[in-house]
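User: Hey, quick favor. My workstation is busy. Could you predict this chain's structure for me?
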Amino acid sequence: MKILLVNYRYFISGGPEKYMFNIKNMLVENGHKVIPFSVHSNKNIETEYSKYFVEPIGGRDATYFEECKKTPKVIAQMLTRSIYSREVEKAIKKEIKEEKPDLVYIIHFVNKLSPSVIFGAKEMGVPVILRLSDYFMLCPRFDFIYRKKPCEECLTKGYRMCIKRRCVKNSLFASTVRVLSMKVHKLIKVYEKVDAFVTPSGFLRQKLIDNGFDKNKINCIPTFTFSKTDIGEQEIGSYGLYFGRITEEKGVSTVVKAYEKLPDHYVKIMGNDSTEEAARLKNYIKEKRIKNVEFVGFKSGAELEEIIKKARFTLIPSIWYDNLPNTALESFQYSKPVIASNIGSLPELVRDGVNGYLFEAGNVKDLMEKIRVLDSDLMVEKMGYESRRCLDERFSPEAHYQTLMNLFEEQLKREKRK
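Assistant: No problem, here it is.
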């Protein structure tokens, strides 16, 4: 099978890209041909198919909205890539015409490629499967967060709430553009053209169904990670560990405040510490003279693995409806218990009292109690074993691959019947 894999980044930036490269490698190992379609960037992994990629907004060195100079040209690009881009449509049609893929598997396109990738593929007669890693089809901000709490008022009161509150980047312009794009996409019925959706969690699947999407098109296929250790290799470490994006919705501040009150416990925070939220938290730590919280920065490869392996347990303190984060699976592969917020998809990962603990999102006292329970080496060992077993039973690469291939084959059969 020949698969066109679409994502707005072709380098590791977060969970969606980790998934993209993992599934790409797995498909290739099983004899399929994978052709990428993306946006040019100086950070991209080299590929012969980059000749089909489109130019980015604001230059090849810019990755995020904040890094782009807001020139008239850049603003025009932001508008077209948010709403509809003829440039992108033309580029993906060219790649489909020349490479002749059997189907298109889209990972992420919002604001960088636009839904023109869907229209372009469908006009070329190719089935489209769209994987969702956040709530962009329901929430202008993608995460249902307002003032550090879950908010669904755009679903109940209309998208005007987003503009009124400047929810997107705290910007009236960005919020208005995002709402306009959602309204246009609804008007042109772009998502009705998608043949099938893939959600990593049952929580996201149910949210879509509750808001009018066809349940028969939505397939919950949990993500996966490759096991790197054997069950018998568990190591009981000495510190708690948060790793991942350091942004407001990830709830890292809850961890900092919990450890502030637990001076005899130690935590490491691993991830890009140049973000606005990381700067705020580091200033807080300095002002409060907190000695047991360490920011170690972004790590990868063997260094990343060693820090996870030597942790006692990991923390996922999200205050948003986190959508089956890779950090949980990466923790499981090293037999680590996970302490996670009782929100979104996290209860699908963490069985309270079995392979970790759930705590009320944002509740510092509740988190402190769960951290103290894991002072017991016996408890850490027992829960770590259950974490690894959960990974092997529910989130194996083999299970994901087989379920995804069944979906791909079903869509190809439907396309032939048309």
